[in-house]
C-alpha cells in the first residue's frame, strides 16, 4: 500500500513538524502525565488553578481532572478573546441553506448575544446546574444557546434536530430539563418547513419538567405559541440586561449531556464536565488541525452530535479560531455546495464525514473541479472508517495532493480525538487512523481481556488510562457507566470498537463489536430500533443488524416475525418504516425488511446476530457455527429468502 508523507510546507509551519518531536512529546505525556497536562492546561484561563491534576479508579468508574480548579467554558470561548483585543475579529461564520445567506459574528457581537441569551435564560428561572434542552437546526442561535448555558452554569442537552417527538421526549425526561430551546421551522436542502416547534409541542405534552419553550424565529412559518409557556427568543432578548457575568464553575461541574445509543433501548446521557473537556478539546484542535491564528476552519458536523460540540464550538473557540457552521446539505442546490463554500470563504481546514465524501465522489470530479480549492491546507474525517477509494479522492481531487488527511478516531464518550495522524508529522496510509494522541495508551485485548502485545494483532480496542476529555458518568446512572465501559475488561476503558495494529504499529478501526450500527456516521442502537418495530401490533419479534452500504457505510436490515394470523402485506412494511421514523427519526429507518417464520436462537433463547449479520451481508458461504441453535432449520429459509 502506498504511504503519504506530509509535504515540506506543512511540516515547516506545523506546531509539530517531525516524527521525532511527536515521539518526544508523546513519551513525555506518557511518562509525566501530570506535567504534560499541567502544561497543556495553560491554554485555558482559570479563575483558580487546580489542587490535583487527576485522580482515577477505573474499577469504580471514577475519574476527576483538575479537581479544585475554577473556570467558565463560555468565558474561555468568548470573553477572554475580547479582553485580549480581538473583539473585532470574526468568531463565527454562518452559511445558510440558501447560497445567498451568510452571517458573520465577531467576538464583540458574539459576547453581546451570548450575554443577552444568558440573561433571558436566567429570567426564565434557569440557574447553575439546571438542564436545558436544545432542539434546533444549524442556525447561529444554536451555538449562542450552547454558550449561554455554559455561561450561567446550566447543563445543555442538545438533541439532534432530526429526532422525532418521542425521542425528544425521552431525552428531556431522562435529564429533567427545565427549558426547551427550539425554532419555528427549519430549512435544510429542499425542505423548507421542517416542523421543529410542532414536534416540540408533541414532545412536551409528556415532559412535566419543562416550564418554558424559547422559540427562535427562523422561517416565520405560522406556529402555535402557548401563552405563559412559550416565549419568542427575540422578545426575550429584547427585554434582557446586556451584562451577565460568567459563573465560576468547578472543573468537575457538568458542562453538558449528550445522548448516544447503547445496547439497551434507552439512550445513554453521556455527561461531560468542564475543566478536562476544555483542556482536551482545545489541545486536540490545536495540534490535530494544526490551527494557526486567522485560519478559516470548517467542520461540517451537526452541533446535535459530539463532533459539533467539540470541534465547531468548544475546541476551536477556545483557540480563537474562525469557526464555520453550515445549515444545509452537501447536495443542495447541487453537488458542488461544499466546494462552493470552500471557495467563497477561503476555507483552510476542512473536517467532514466519509459518508459525505462517498456521496459526493459518486457524482464525479466535475463538481469540485468547478471551484478554486487552493485555500485548503488540511483535511479531516471522522465518524466511521474511511475506505481507500474515498480517501484517495479526498487526497487527489479535493486536496490536490498537498493537504494531509487526518482520519480522526474518537467517540461521544471520549469527548475529543484519541487516535489520529498529526498533519506535519504522520506518514498516512489510507484507511488507518494511525497513532495515538498525546497521553493516550490504546490497547488491543482478546475476548478474555488479555493484552495483545506487539504488531500485526487484532482485538477489542481499550484505553489503559483516562484522558481529560473523557465522559464522567451516564447521567443519573453511574452503574450503567461502569457496566458499559469498565466491566468487561476490568481496569480499562472499553470503546466497543474492534481494531487491528499493523506491522508499523498503526491502528485500523474495524467497526463496532457491540450492538451499535453506524449509519451515515450516526450511531444507532439495535435495541432501540427493535423496540420501535416491536411496537407494531402485527409484529411478534424483530432483530436488526447492519450490512455494508456503498454510501452510508452501513445500512439497516430488519428480520421480522409476525404474530400468528397476521399476514405480510406491503402495508405492514410501510407501517413499520413509518413507525421507526416517527419513534426515532428518518435516519434510523430500515433499508431492508425480511419477514421470517423464525429467528436463529440458542437454546437459551438468545438471538444469534452473527448469523443474521452474515445473511444480511450476503456472506452465506461462511455463516459460522450453527450447531448451538435450538432449531438450525430456520437458517436455510432465512438464507433463501434474503433480500
Ligand atoms: C466510529 C463520533 C473509524 C467508531 C466522533 C466509534 C470511527 C463511533 C472513526 C463513535 C474513524 C468514529 N474511523 N471509525 N476515524 N471515528 N468512528 O459517538 O465506531 O458518534 O466508536 O462519535 O464512530 O461515534 P460517535
From TrEMBL:
Gene Ontology cellular-component annotations: cytosol
Domain (Acetyl-coenzyme A synthetase N-terminal): residue spans on this chain: 22-77
Protein name: Acetyl-coenzyme A synthetase
Role according to the record: Catalyzes the conversion of acetate into acetyl-CoA (AcCoA), an essential intermediate at the junction of anabolic and catabolic pathways. AcsA undergoes a two-step reaction. In the first half reaction, AcsA combines acetate with ATP to form acetyl-adenylate (AcAMP) intermediate. In the second half reaction, it can then transfer the acetyl group from AcAMP to the sulfhydryl group of CoA, forming the product AcCoA.
Keyword field: Acetylation, ATP-binding, Ligase, Magnesium, Metal-binding, Nucleotide-binding
Lineage: Archaea, Methanobacteriati, Thermoplasmatota, Thermoplasmata, Candidatus Thermoprofundales
InterPro entries: Ac_CoA_lig (IPR011904), ACAS_N (IPR032387), AMP-bd_C (IPR025110), AMP-bd_C_sf (IPR045851), AMP-binding_CS (IPR020845), AMP-dep_synth/lig_dom (IPR000873), ANL_N_sf (IPR042099)
Single Gene Ontology BP annotation: carbon fixation by 3-hydroxypropionate cycle
Positions that bind ATP: 383-385, 407-412, 497, 512
Boundaries of every AMP-dependent synthetase/ligase domain copy: 84-473
Listed GO MF terms: 3-hydroxypropionyl-CoA synthetase activity; acetate-CoA ligase activity; AMP binding; ATP binding; metal ion binding
Binding-site list for CoA: 307, 331, 520, 581
Enzyme Commission number(s): 6.2.1.1
PROSITE patterns named in the record: AMP_BINDING
Binding site for Mg(2+): 536, 539
Cofactor (UniProt): Mg(2+)
Processing after translation: Acetylated. Deacetylation by the SIR2-homolog deacetylase activates the enzyme.
Biological source species: Marine Group III euryarchaeote
Record keyword Metal-binding present: yes
Residues annotated with N6-acetyllysine modification: 606
Domain AMP-binding enzyme C-terminal, chain residue ranges per copy: 528-606
Annotated family: Belongs to the ATP-dependent AMP-binding enzyme family.
Catalytic activity as recorded in UniProt: acetate + ATP + CoA = acetyl-CoA + AMP + diphosphate
Amino acid at each position: 500500500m502506498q504511504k503519504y508523507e506530509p509535504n515540506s510546507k506543512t511540516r515547516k509551519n506545523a506546531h509539530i513538524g517531525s516524527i521525532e518531536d511527536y515521539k518526544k512529546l508523546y513519551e513525555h505525556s506518557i511518562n509525566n502525565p501530570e506535567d504534560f497536562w499541567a502544561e497543556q492546561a495553560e491554554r485555558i484561563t482559570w479563575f483558580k488553578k487546580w489542587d490535583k491534576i487527576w485522580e482515577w479508579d477505573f474499577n469504580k468508574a471514577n475519574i476527576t481532572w483538575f479537581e479544585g480548579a475554577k473556570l467558565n467554558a463560555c468565558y474561555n470561548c468568548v470573553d477572554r478573546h475580547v479582553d485580549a483585543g480581538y473583539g473585532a475579529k470574526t468568531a463565527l461564520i454562518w452559511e445558510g441553506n440558501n447560497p445567498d445567506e451568510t452571517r458573520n459574528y465577531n467576538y464583540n457581537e458574539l459576547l453581546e448575544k451570548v450575554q443577552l441569551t444568558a440573561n433571558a435564560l436566567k429570567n426564565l428561572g434557569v440557574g447553575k446546574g439546571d438542564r436545558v434542552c436544545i432542539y434546533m437546526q444549524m442556525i447561529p442561535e444554536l451555538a449562542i444557546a450552547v454558550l449561554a448555558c455554559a455561561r450561567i452554569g446550566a447543563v445543555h442537552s442538545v438533541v439532534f434536530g432530526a429526532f422525532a417527538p418521542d425521542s425528544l421526549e425521552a431525552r428531556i425526561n431522562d435529564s429533567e430539563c427545565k427549558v426547551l430551546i427550539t425554532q419555528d421551522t427549519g430549512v435544510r436542502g429542499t425542505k423548507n418547513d421542517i416542523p421543529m416547534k410542532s414536534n416540540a409541542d408533541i414532545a412536551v405534552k409528556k415532559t412535566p419538567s419543562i416550564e418554558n419553550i424559547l422559540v427562535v424565529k427562523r422561517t416565520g412559518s405560522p406556529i402555535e405559541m402557548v401563552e405563559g409557556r412559550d416565549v419568542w427568543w427575540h422578545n426575550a432578548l429584547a427585554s434582557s440586561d446586556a451584562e451577565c457575568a460568567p459563573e465560576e464553575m468547578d472543573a468537575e461541574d457538568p458542562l453538558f449531556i449528550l445522548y448516544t445509543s447503547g445496547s439497551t433501548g434507552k439512550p445513554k446521557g453521556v455527561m461531560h464536565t468542564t475543566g478536562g473537556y476544555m483542556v482536551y478539546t482545545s489541545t486536540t484542535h490545536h495540534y490535530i488541525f494544526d490551527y494557526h491564528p486567522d485560519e478559516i476552519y470548517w467542520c461540517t458536523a451537526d452541533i446535535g452530535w459530539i463532533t459539533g460540540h467539540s470541534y465547531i464550538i468548544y475546541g476551536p473557540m477556545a483557540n480563537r479560531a474562525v469557526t464555520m457552521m453550515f445549515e444545509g446539505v452537501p447536495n443542495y442546490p447541487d453537488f458542488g455546495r461544499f466546494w462552493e463554500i470552500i471557495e467563497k470563504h477561503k476555507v483552510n481546514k476542512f473536517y467532514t464525514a466519509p459518508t459525505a465524501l462517498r456521496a459526493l465522489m459518486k457524482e464525479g470530479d466535475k463538481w469540485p473541479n468547478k471551484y478554486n480549492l487552493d485555500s485548503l491546507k488540511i483535511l479531516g474525517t471522522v465518524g466511521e472508517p474511511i475506505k481507500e477509494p474515498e480517501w484517495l479522492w479526498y487526497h487527489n481531487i479535493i486536496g490536490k495532493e498537498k493537504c494531509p488527511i487526518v482520519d480522526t478516531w474518537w467517540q461521544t464518550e471520549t469527548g475529543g480525538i484519541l487516535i489520529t495522524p498529526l498533519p506535519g508529522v504522520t506518514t498516512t496510509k489510507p484507511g488507518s487512523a494511525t497513532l495515538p494522541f498525546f497521553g493516550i495508551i490504546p490497547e488491543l485485548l482478546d475476548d478474555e481481556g488479555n493484552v495483545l502485545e506487539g504488531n500485526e494483532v487484532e482485538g477489542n480496542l481499550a484505553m489503559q488510562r483516562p484522558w481529560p476529555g473523557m465522559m464522567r458518568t451516564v447521567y443519573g446512572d453511574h452503574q450503567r457507566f461502569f457496566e458499559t465501559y469498565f466491566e468487561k475488561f476490568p481496569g480499562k476503558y472499553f470503546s466497543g470498537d474492534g481494531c487491528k495494529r499493523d506491522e508499523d504499529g498503526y491502528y485500523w478501526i474495524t467497526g463496532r463489536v457491540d450492538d451499535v450500527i453506524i449509519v451515515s456516521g450516526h450511531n444507532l442502537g439495535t435495541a432501540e430500533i427493535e423496540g420501535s418495530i416491536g411496537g407494531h401490533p402485527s409484529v411478534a419479534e424483530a432483530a436488526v443488524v447492519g450490512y455494508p452500504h456503498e454510501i452510508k457505510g452501513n445500512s439497516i436490515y430488519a428480520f421480522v416475525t409476525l404474530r400468528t394470523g397476521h399476514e405480510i402485506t406491503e402495508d405492514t412494511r410501510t407501517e413499520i418504516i413509518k413507525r421507526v421514523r416517527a419513534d426515532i427519526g428518518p435516519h434510523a429507518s430500515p433499508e431492508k425488511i425480511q419477514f421470517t417464520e423464525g429467528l436463529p436462537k440458542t437454546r437459551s433463547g438468545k438471538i444469534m446476530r452473527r448469523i443474521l449479520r452474515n445473511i444480511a451481508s450476503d456472506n452465506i458461504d461462511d455463516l459460522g457455527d450453527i450447531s448451538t441453535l435450538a432449531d438450525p432449520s430456520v437458517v436455510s429459509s432465512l438464507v433463501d429468502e434474503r433480500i
